[in-house]
Amino acid sequence: MAAPKKSRGPAGGQGRPGRSLALILIAMVALTGGMFLAGQPTPRLGIDLAGGTSITLEAKSEPGQESAINKTNMDTAVQIMERRVNGLGVSEAEVQTQGDRNIIVNIPKGTNSAQAREQVGTTAKLYFRPVLTVAQGTPTPTPSASSSGKPSPSASPSASASADGKASATPSASASTQGRAVTDGLKADVTPSPKASGSAATTPEPSASAPSAAEEAAAAKLEKRFAALDCSSKASRAEAARGAKPTETVVACSSEGDAKYVLGPSEVSGTEVDNAKAGFDQQRGMWIVNMEFTKKGSKEFQTITKKLSAQQSPQNQFAIALDGEVVSAPQVNTTLSGSAEISGSFTQQSAEDLANVLSYGALPLSFKEASVTTVTAALGGEQLRAGLIAGAIGLALVVIYLVAYYRGLAFIALLSLLASGILTYTLMSLLGPAIGFALNLPAVCGAIVAIGITADSFIVYFERIRDEIRDGRTLRPAVQRAWPRARRTILVSDFVSFLAAAVLFVVTVGKVQGFAFTLGLTTLLDVVVVFLFTKPVMTLMARTKFFSSGHPWSGLDPKRLGAKPPLRRSRRVNAPTDPKEA
Length: 582
Fold this sequence. Notes:
With 582 residues, this protein is of the alpha+beta class. It contains 15 helices and 17 strands. It has helices at residues 17-37, 47-50, 71-87, 113-120, 213-228, 234-241, 295-308, 348-359, 377-406, 409-435, 441-470, 475-507, 511-541, 545-548, 558-561, and strands at residues 52-60, 94-98, 102-108, 126-136, 158-161, 167-170, 181-183, 186-188, 250-254, 259-263, 268-269, 273-281, 286-293, 318-322, 325-328, 339-343, 366-375.
């Protein structure tokens, strides 16, 4: 006689549904607590709901560089702008191209939105240039020409050696632009950038070889432009910075406008800056920006500082020029390499802004603001209310359908929808500070669509249970036998939804990504809720008299479902073997 087969445990963990429920309840409590501890009790809102600023930037072509405005450079500019804005922690800033010359930047209303607006269009082209001449920022009379036809200065600052052997300038007026270069643990003392005490500034010593007529004409033109430059005017500073090529000798203003310079060709480019961070110097009580160079940049920086350290003031200074303006002009008294430090009249915000733009690189193009549009929060509030009303109507229709068709089972479905809603809300709130997620109107639409997806999973399971009851099984076996078939269907359905959301997120930009992200998130949560909440709750409810007895309002009444009578095996009657018995 064959040994009887051992009965398997109930499928799906019928005997231990409490463990799954305890797990998901602990997760819900933990997420809710984390939401309040993080100080983010509500999801962050996007620009269309919270208001903000929409900026249209138009690419400008420099003379002779019209072909620079192309798709490659525009895409590169978009990526750099995105990194700059994200580096400031601005949530859901959108940067995308429009046409072949425009970039649209949407900055939601927030703490750092003003900083982001300032930085998105900043070109951030950084060059380290040797200082040839420095003077006060106001226009000065054109110097008289000597008998040789060369312009000669009317005054120059004197230089003397200090007690420690470092050169120091003693001008009659000093510029406020100061700095200190720091590298490999060595520090070069920084003295105020000197200015001319008369109507003209110090000029470099003439070279041994006589200049050509063309060189003399260019020098005279540069001298005239330098003398007429008025750095106190913002328009003049912008004009001086425009078209400054790194290979040419140029005139420039300090960022504060109180000093003007003649700068030699660039010796080190900002592209050789590997990393930049803002910090506070406790000894000097000032904010600074520390830069780390690449290997190539370190060698170039060592070469220029070696050459400058042998010069007299002001020609032992190197100017740190950002977008054509001199941010700092420290003096160098020793050879430096590896890293550098920019200091000056920085605030914490300006130091962090400069470090941010230097870290993420310079834009390949120059831009101007074509338009700036402000989206009010009132308009966003109206859109949010409309979205919430649409969601409430959709949820109400789902509830009416569930109650009318599934009766008592609708209670389980509503509990599951509530669990899904809590998980979705808490995760959206936590993802705001974590990854910068912000709820916009398309994301609200994605959440509304998710109501139908989640309800569909419950319906699949309920219908499988009903099919088992129609086949003549009682409720508790029907719940367990229906689960494997329903589980397979639910997983396939949710996988298709998640795949569609993932593809939509990858191939789209802007607000549509908010819809795709929310749809994918709620699809994953649907799987979690069905496995860890709906199934265990259904198992527990099957043990109650209301459901197990097939109450007419339970939604599982065998009579209403047209159940077949229980299947019974008929006894086999063996044919008689004895002819007498036949």
